[in-house]
Amino acid sequence: MSVVPTVDMKALLGPVTLPWPILASSGCCGYGRELRQFVDLDELGAIITKSVMAQPRTGWPTPRMAETTGGMLNAIGLQGSGIDSFLEHDLPWLLDRCGHTAVSIAGGSVDEYGELARRVREAGGPRFLEINISCPNVESRGQVFACDPHAAAKVVSAVREGAGADLPVFAKLSADVADIVDVAHACVEAGADGLSLINTLLGAAIDARSMRPVLPKVTGGLSGPAIKPVALRCIWQVHAALPHVPIIGGGGVFSGVDAFEMLLAGASAVSVGTAMFRNPRACVRIRDELSATLAERGFTRLVDAVGLAHEGY
Amino acid sequence: MTAPATPSAVHAEVVAVETFDATRRIVVAAPRIASAYRPGQFITVAVGDDLGMPLPRSFSIMDADPATGLVEFAVSVFSRGTAWLARRLPGEVLSIVGPLGRPFTLPSPGACCLVIAGGHGGAGVYRLIRELTGQRNAIHLVIGATTKARLFAVDALARVIDAGASSMTVTTDDGSAGLHGSITMPLRDLADRHQPEIAYACGSMPMLQAVSLELDGRMPLYVATETAMACGFGVCLTCTLPIVGADGLTRMTRSCVDGPVFRADRVRWEAIGTVPANCVGGVV
Question: What is the pTM of this model?
Fold first, then answer.
């Protein structure tokens, strides 16, 4: 299927304009090298890198994943090479091949987040930063800054300062909170240009044969079609409360219609993750399906669908 | 190690499905995969009529023919996903990604080889054995399983193995066919008698570990590992194993892109399921 040319597919995310609305989610596309075997990276709205941390990390023991009905749990533990190696080897490679690169950063402390932002800004090139304050696979829930509006705001402020005025900042939030709108408000007030909704949900799987948890650390992050309704709820609530704040919506998007639903709920662009595990060309297929879906319904511009479901509510 | 060819994501029509020993052998038309394939590589196959099982399943490529564009793999039914695949019919279309991973390193022509296939692991060495035959390697093949019904490809491989310079030994844990005992039982004797220069093994991780222990570094041993993986092409980092690199340091290493074939002496067998204390961070 080819892209229907009559729909303007540009995604407007506040200070960031992307040529396409479908983004490859952080943690599902590495730093682009593997995905490039299957897709031209400029066919994506953006690549959001796997979260980069200050130091190299080994990640957790295996098994690190479990398929569940309509989803999967992962417990990788942010395995990665650290910011020095990323800036030396990975970011330059990616910037050469993808005009729309976003860097996801994850820190163990507020200062570390600020420092990571400063390092990425100094390196230059990325279109925006995504702050991963919501990875469930960290040593303690106390480290999940997105669980507390005050902690989330402190991280966003530090990143804002490190990123300077010209590098836009999106905060990726968790749905595992009492009120996601409170956290969203706090992040925006602290200087976030936009929000990314949602990270994986904290889940667990038990093996009925061994009668023990499937994952050695018991819990993991749930993704896939099973979490799409939760993502739509979060996008809806945040868009209703903060209609002018751009949202990257994601969670279980596997089709163009799924992406369309995210737009209607209030997302300005849509991230795709787990679907790429099933097929590495998923982002391109979903983009083309979304274009056709919009055309079939008479849209000439993608932006006109953003938040449309809120009319009358 | 040999650099892998570029994989493709394709929609492949099922050409034939048949019972093959205790498995279902599925043949698909996938010319790009067939022409890039090297023995030891694998594919991932999406399963299910809906998204209830969102992750693809991975299979060793059993055989592939660049001339016809056909690719074969064998499905052992042990879960809903594999049961769905076993019910496929000719004419249906599967979403397949491959060939994935690093292939086996082939020996020099004429060299004597030991090949060990446990259970349906026989699928992973099926093509390798034909290529070894093609380059006139003497092959001492050991096929083992828990019981006779689980033996894989014994008849098919018996036709390939040249009885003159090569040999085939069958073992079952329960003695229902061949030698009564574990697959490791005949290995030392075969190694003593034939002095193989290189060995290959395919099967479950405990079996591969037992084979590695038994052969104890007497010759280079290449193992095709089996791990739980979500993507198969290197992005999800779920399939990592503690592997010692060329620099002597252990890293949690992706078995999908840096394996599935590893030299057995690089695998920290005792540490699988853990992150060893001296493991260094990062992604290779």
Answer: 0.95
